[in-house]
């Protein structure tokens, strides 16, 4: 657990870099985390996936599977992997300030 | 001596290199023979690890157009089912067990095999068939689902697996 200042806010992050408190998230923090993960610019397509993950987590309490991210977010699987080459569900969750998805699918 | 011990200790402390690539061989054609490999391949892609699937022998059923939708749980010769063999042989048992498991899997958001192969393929995972088996069963590229990336000899498979961990299921 480490407290780091991102975009002017002191946020707590777990060892993998996920925010510990979802409430601390801001779009500026999202851009910073994206940059760390090798995504230099968050395009509207990135945002669509990130917002879908975040919304789903905030309403259901769990992050969606990659299957529903691909089917329901409006961003198909192929494009998701182009946008987030190191794992769309994991990265979109990290950028969206929600915990790492725990599911196997 | 102390230096040597220090070195050994140091080796233990070094974090192992993260996995870069897995090649998973699927050799069985039952539901419980196919799904673990698909879950592992998809799981690898979700972590940003490269993954290729190589289907051989009855594992080929998972990517055959005519068989993909007919994959069943083995109710005979499968002690994990905890079914007396005599019950397992009753016609329809395998169908019933498959249907029950399918319902459970859908609840967990695990896709049916066809959709799962498509998901892995769209995620950048390679889908390959074993040439020896294709010849043995007298099949052609046309017999496979469109996600097939190629029919490989074992030599080509090893070439493809350079630097990867090979997992046999």
Describe this structure in words.
- The complex is a heterodimer of chains A (105) and B (169).
- Chain A has helices spanning 27-36, 44-60, 66-72, 77-83, 88-95; strands at 2-6, 9-13.
- Chain A is mainly α and 105 residues long.
- Chain A has a single domain (2-95), classed as 2-Layer Sandwich (Dissimilatory Siroheme-sulfite Reductase, Chain: A, domain 1), CATH 3.30.1420.10.
- Chain A starts with a strand and ends in a 10-residue tail after the last helix.
- The model of chain A has no long low-confidence stretch (mean pLDDT 93).
- With 169 residues, chain B is α/β, with parallel strands linked by helices.
- Chain B has a domain at 22-71 and 112-168: Hypothetical Protein Ychn, Chain: A (3-Layer(aba) Sandwich), CATH 3.40.1260.
- In chain B, 41% of the residues lie in helices and 14% in strands.
- Chain B contains seven helices and five strands.
- Chain B has a five-stranded parallel beta sheet.
- The model of chain B has no long low-confidence stretch (mean pLDDT 93).
- At the A-B interface, helix 3, helix 4 and helix 5 of A face helix 2 of B.
CATH topology of chain A: Dissimilatory Siroheme-sulfite Reductase, Chain: A, domain 1
Supply the CATH class of chain A.
Alpha Beta
Radius of gyration of chain B, rounded?
A: 19 Å
The helicity of chain B comes to 40-55%
H and E order of chain B: HEHEHHHEHEHE
The count of DSSP E runs of length 2 or more, i.e. the number of strands of chain A, is: 2
Unreliable residue stretches of chain A: none
Count of DSSP helices of chain B?
Answer: 7
| CATH arch. level architecture of the domain at 22-71 and 112-168 in chain B | 3-Layer(aba) Sandwich
How many strands of chain B?
5
């Amino acid at each position: 657990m480490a407290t780091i200042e991102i975009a002017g806010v002191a946020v707590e992050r777990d060892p993998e870099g996920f925010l510990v408190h979802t409430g601390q998230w801001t779009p500026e923090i999202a851009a910073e985390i994206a940059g760390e993960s090798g995504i230099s610019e968050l395009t509207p397509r990135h945002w669509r996936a990130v917002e879908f993950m975040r919304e789903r987590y905030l309403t259901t309490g769990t992050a969606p599977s990659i299957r529903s991210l691909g089917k329901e977010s409006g961003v198909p699987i192929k494009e998701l992997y182009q946008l987030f080459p190191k794992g769309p569900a994991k990265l979109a969750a990290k950028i969206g300030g929600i915990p790492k998805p725990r599911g196997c699918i | 001596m102390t230096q040597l011990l220090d070195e050994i200790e140091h080796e233990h402390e070094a974090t192992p290199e993260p996995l870069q690539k897995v090649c998973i061989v699927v050799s069985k054609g039952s539901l419980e023979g196919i799904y673990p490999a698909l879950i592992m391949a998809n799981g690898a892609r979700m972590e940003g690890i490269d993954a290729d699937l190589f289907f051989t022998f009855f594992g080929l059923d998972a990517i055959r157009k005519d068989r993909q939708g007919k994959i069943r749980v083995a109710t005979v010769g499968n002690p994990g089912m905890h079914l007396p063999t005599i019950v397992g042989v009753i016609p329809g048992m395998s169908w019933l067990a498959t249907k029950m498991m399918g319902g459970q899997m859908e609840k967990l958001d695990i896709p049916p095999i066809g959709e799962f192969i498509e998901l892995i393929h769209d995620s950048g995972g390679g889908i390959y068939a074993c040439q020896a088996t294709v010849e043995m069963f007298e099949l052609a590229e046309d017999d496979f689902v469109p996600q097939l990336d190629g029919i490989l000899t074992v030599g080509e498979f090893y070439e493809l697996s350079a630097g990867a961990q090979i997992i046999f299921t």
